[in-house]
Amino acid sequence: MIQRPDIEVYSPDGKLQLVAEVKNKKGATAEWAANMRRNLFDHSVVPYSPYFLLALPDHFYLWKNPISAIDKRLPDYGASSRPILEHHLHNSSHYLETMSEYGLELVINSWLNKLVNANLTRETASPDEAWLFDSGLYDAIKNGFVKTEATV
Fold first, then answer.
1. HEC profile for the chain?
2. Whole-angstrom Cα distance, residue 57 to residue 121?
3. Window from 75-79, 90-94, 101-105 with minimum mean pLDDT
4. Cα angle, residue 59 at apex, residues 53 and 94 outer, rounded to 5°
């Protein structure tokens, strides 16, 4: 059976920039996220990319330029996912509380598709999106494209 990451995001020239894995776990710590990332790499579920995002219903954890698959370091960036996800759910936190993992993946996919096609600047982005600019992720994926459950 072929293992596939949940979401891959490419630059406009077709280079893999971001692998995103979606898990429906609330209240996860940065330590839990680091262990989850390592387990995903250990089992060859995710390919190497300059950015790795673990997307949870209440938090985003982002690694930039991971050294190796066995790297157990904590995420480089962490941010509340609720403001971004609730915006895509028309400001309804109820949906976020009861959503399945597959539903969460659809919302993350929708957000990433809008993000690659957005014309944001640090000044026009919401404060909740500052980490996208601080990490360089927005510039890496701007005008790119998103693939869901791509074969690796």
1. CCCCCCEEEECCCCCEEEEEEECCCCCCCHHHHHHHHHHHHHCCCCCCCCEEEEECCCCEEEEECCCCCCCCCCCCEEECCHHHHHHHCCCCHHHHHHCCHHHHHHHHHHHHHHHHHCCCCCCCCCHHHHHHHHCCHHHHHCCCEEEECCCC
2. 25
3. 90-94
4. 125
Distance (Å, rounded) from C-alpha 84 to C-alpha 117?
16
Q: Please identify which residue in the block is written with the tokens 């330029």.
A: 65
* Phi, psi (rounded to 5 degrees) for 77: -140, 145
**pTM score:** 0.88
What's the rounded Cα separation, in Å, for the pair 133 and 149? 26
pLDDT one-digit tens code per residue, 27-50: 999 999 999 998 888 777 678 899
DSSP state of 75: P
